Amino acid sequence: MKMNKKNSIKMIWLILLLPLVLTGCISIKKSSEVGSAGGFFLSDTKGEGWTHWSTIYTVGDQVKTFGGANVTAMAFDPQDEAAIYLGTQNSGILYSYNHGQGWTNTLAYSGTINDIVVHPENKCIVYVAAHNKIWKTEDCSRTWTDVYFEARPGQFVTALNINYDNPNIVYAGTNGGSFLQSLDRGQSWDVLKRFDNHVQQIVVQNHSDSKIVYAITKTLGVWRSGDGGYNWENLMELPVYQLEAITEGDRTFTAIRQDDEGMPFFKISGVRIAVAADSDHSVTDGLLYGNRIGMFRFVGDHWEQLKLLTPKTKETIYSVAVNPLDGDEIFYGTANALYHTVDNGISWEIKELPTNRVPVQLKVSPNNKYLYLGVYKIEK
Question: Looking at residue 96, which CATH number applies to its domain?
Fold first, then answer.
């Protein structure tokens, strides 16, 4: 079949552009059908399709939704895989006992919800970091009591977690850098560490050893404690290595690049500015950490940098989620798309987001059945 001159030129341009696409120089455009819906989305197809559930239970025939809300936090109930808790910027807490099909609103006028944690043995006990207070309920969100108050101007409670082996122990972090511990379920608090930097997230390795605690700071990177928060190690001083794909026979896997001698993690410009982290439950002590520089995995005594499709410094990673049953399956979200790998970054799939808001909360359900998404509208 003959090809005319015009088609020949098109084919030449396609051949020239194809390598650029395959090497990660990507531009994702959302379809015209994608709107600006906020709130919560669920996928049972690994992000191929999404359901937007935002119905709030009310008395009578009144219909109420939170489809325009900015989601700021997401938490699970360790005893009930169908239970989800969402924190919002202006609408308090939404909780669902049926995977998000219907929601109940509580703590509506307490300010921005920064974090939520559910007691591992008593689902009616929930702790919430909201504005400058820690709130606690012991009757399944019917009533709330503030158990901690930051009196200093401009100080807020930003992070929470709990020790599953001893649920009397609750951890909290503030934007001023204080790492707090309560040994009596929130009745009293002590400062164990002052990071002098915003504590953005607290990760406890409750699946293996609840004494292992991580503090993700806003601009100082990641710190780790092996004794429940009393002593800390700066993980940014450990070496970081590049990963590459290795093929042996019919098997392909990732390994440290042979010519990479490693360098201290903190020497990568901008890497200490944290955005998202998630525990890798498939190993005893593993962590995924993402930001504008890329995605990094902590593996005990060093860091490994995953190979991504998004070019370095071109896209901020706003959320990271690891399959709790398989650490090689990872999701991460940017402002433009969702990325998915099942082989630790050897290959990635790009998936369209269901909204033009930013995917700030991304979690895989404990049974790996659902992918949950909470979004936020960032004002430009």
Answer: 2.130.10.10
The answer to the question of residue 316 being in a domain is: yes
pLDDT at residue 338, rounded to an integer:
97
Residue 1 lies in a domain: no
pLDDT on residue 60: 76
Domain count across the chain: 1
Cβ neighbour number for residue 376 with a 10 Å cutoff: 18
* Element housing 137 (H / E): strand 133-137
Residue 44 DSSP SS3: coil
pLDDT the model gives residue 306? 93
Residue carrying structure tokens 């972090």: 173
What per-residue string of b and e applies to 243-279 under the rule 16 or more CB within 10 Å gives b? beeeeeeeeeebeebeeeeeeebbebeebbebbbbbb
pLDDT of residue 380: 67
- Point out which residues pair with 362 in neighbouring strands: 373
Residue 134 falls inside a structural domain: yes
Range of the domain at 207: 36-376
Domain-embedded: residue 18: no
Contact present, 296 and 305 (Cβ < 8 Å): yes
Write the pLDDT tens digit of every residue in 219-241: 999 999 999 999 999 999 999 99
Tell me the Cα Rg of the chain: 22
The predicted structure's pLDDT at residue 79: 95
Token pair for 140 = 């399944």
Q: Dump pLDDT digits (tens) for 340-357.
A: 999 999 999 999 999 999
